[in-house]
Every structure is written in C-alpha cells, then in structure tokens.
Amino acid sequence: MSLTRVSVTAVRNLHPVTFSPSPRINILYGENGSGKTSLLEAIHLLGLARSFRSLRLNPVIQYEQPSCTVFGQVQLGNGMSSNLGVARDRQGEFQIRIDGQNARSTAQLAETLPLQLINPDSFRLLEGAPKIRRQFLDWGVFHVEQRFMVAWQRLQKALRQRNSWLRHGKLDGASQAAWDRELCTASEEIDAYRRSYIQALKPVFEQTLGELVQLDQLTLSYYRGWDKDRELSEVLNSSLLRDQQMGHTQAGPQRADLRIRLGSHNAAEILSRGQQKLVVCALRIAQGHLINQAKRGQCVYLVDDLPSELDEKHRHSLCRLLEDLGCQVFITCVDPELLMDGWRTDTPVAMFHVEHGHVSQTTPGSEE
C-alpha cells in the first residue's frame, strides 16, 4: 500500500501542504528547521493519530490555530483505495474518518496505514524501558495475527479488574477467581502469539542485520513476563501478598521484554550509536518483510535524517534493504546528494524540497 496524496493543515511550521508522493522512494530535503520532520510527523498523525516527537499535542498544532488536520488517500494492496482523515485539537480530542465514516479507534488507522518509524530516537528501542520493546513486538503481532487485538483487549480488562481489587479489595472470592482465570487465559494466548512471531522474526532479522553489519554474537531472546517453568496462575497465587502491597499485578505479559544482547551484555551498553541505529533498522525492516508475507499490504517507512551517524557504505546498504522491501519510503536529509546514488535506476524516486514550511517537488539532479 502507499499514500498517493497527502494534505496537511496547521501542523507545526508547515504552510497548508498538498503533495502526491511516489509509491516508492520519496526524499524530503532542506535546511534544519525547514519542516522536513514535521512532514513525517503529519504522516505519522495520519497513521496513528499521535506524534512521534511530543506526548503533548499543543506543540504539534500551529500557533494560534485551534486544531490540525491531515488527509490522505491510500492505495491498498488489493488495488482499491481508501481515504483517511485525522483532526486533533488543543483539548486532546481527535476525530478519525475512514472513507467518510467515523472510526472508533486508532487500531483501524494502523490497520489501513501501517507505519514504521526510523529516527534519531530509534536507539531507545535498545536502551529504553521494556515497554518500548513490548510496543515494537506487539505492533508486529497485531499486523500478522488477526486474533491478537481481541486477546489484548481481554488482557487489559482483566488486568484493570485485578489491579482495582488489589488496591481496594472490593471483589468477592468468586469474582476474584473468575478474573484471575480470565487473566491467565488471555495471557497464555498473548504469549503464544508473541512466541510465534519472535520465531518468525529472528531468522529474517539475522539475515537483514548481516547485510548491514557483522555482529555475530548479537542475539534476540523473549522474556514472557513470568517464570518460564511455572504456570501464571501459580505465580499469581504465590505473589498475591506482594501484589496487594504494591497495588498492581507484577507478573504477566504486561511485563514481557524483547532482550537484545551482545554476548552476555545488554547490546545498548556495548554498541556504538551507529551500530545501534543499524540494529534498529534491521529490526524494523525485518518487521516489514513479515507484514509483506502476512498480507498484501505493506508498511510505509518514515526515515528521519537517514545519513546521520552512517558512513557511505552503510547508507547504501540501508537504502538497498529499504528498496528491496518494495514499499513506500519517506526519507529526510539536509544534503540530497548523499542519497541520490543509493537506488537502482528503475526505482521511482521523487524529490521534494522543503523550505520555510513550503513543499515543492523538484527533478532529481536539479537540487539547489
């Protein structure tokens, strides 16, 4: 799938923008502060109804404007097209429209327009909290396993009920036992989906990483969130007193982690920043391959400042891997010359110059 048309209004410093990107490679170039990253942010809003640069929406919405809006036309993998629209206001309210109908959740957006983000903060996937790696893992499972979302919603509901009981003690014994059973059932289902996904991801990741950098001792392992040799029901019973003292459930898939190690060490403690970027790129490209296998639609990749921290060899390797995915890519850079010779001659490449919030398409080779 790919975006064939994008319209942006009142996002940061961007003037009202409407442009028609290439279905393959799109290079957005311009000086720092020109609005390149804001354009990627607008596409991110269209796919997830939130920013990747700020938890708060106020900085995203243009000064003195009440709201921001992004519209997009998506060419789907089945040859059909879909129209998406997202509006966010300063009070945090948002409206999502898909083909003229109000959508109930951001999951519908994510299903229609699956996005992968690679940006200067991507190293947080390695050195950040387990929650970031769970989100990465579950994003992939969501797109390849249709039953995941229902099980995940059941898990969240059971966790809320159990944690409320732990804090307030307002459930009778029978209700408590029922919610514990529901929590265990949903947890086992989530764990099975995650394990299956990791099993499929690891060989694709290893092959992709090998084309970028040699890190023979780097390994992926999955911690499910409780002792691998014990049933969750047994763990919950044995930790009940401590859970009550803490006021929340400590064991379960909400504590799962994707562990990335180099030998016996946490990879983030050993790898350089450039190596970390390559590992994260390999993980996200491997996810794209799994989505291509699972459904006809493909990811749209948002790559902010691709040349940073990478030498010419690794830039070319990364461009070739993105190209081989056969999906739509948006890449920002200051100097487009660094990215012009990284593509095959038959790959469509569109150039867009971003300057003071204006976006204009240029001919490759005519960059200022």
List its traits.
368 residues; Rossmann fold; six-stranded mixed β-sheet; 2 domains; Glutathione S-transferase Yfyf (Class Pi), Chain A, domain 2
Question: Any guess at the CATH architecture of the largest domain?
Answer: 3-Layer(aba) Sandwich
The arrangement of helices and strands along the chain is EEEHEEEEHEHHHHEHHEEHHEHEEE
Q: Report the major sheet.
A: 6 strands, antiparallel
| Distance between the amino and carboxyl termini | 31 Å
Return the average pLDDT rounded to an integer.
Answer: 89
Uncertain ranges: none
Describe the structure in your own words.
The chain has 368 residues and is α/β, with parallel strands linked by helices. It has eleven helices and 15 strands. The protein has two domains: 1-114 and 300-368, P-loop containing nucleotide triphosphate hydrolases (Rossmann fold, 3-Layer(aba) Sandwich); 122-296, Glutathione S-transferase Yfyf (Class Pi), Chain A, domain 2 (Up-down Bundle). It has helices at 36-48, 106-112, 124-127, 130-144, 148-168, 173-210, 232-238, 240-246, 267-270, 273-294, 312-325; strands at residues 2-9, 17-19, 25-29, 67-75, 81-89, 94-98, 101-102, 115-118, 218-223, 257-262, 265-266, 300-303, 328-333, 349-355, 358-362. The strands form three sheets. A six-stranded antiparallel β-sheet has the order 2-1-4-5-6-7, covered by helices on one side. A hairpin with a 2-residue loop joins strand 6 and strand 7. It is globular, with a radius of gyration of 22 Å.
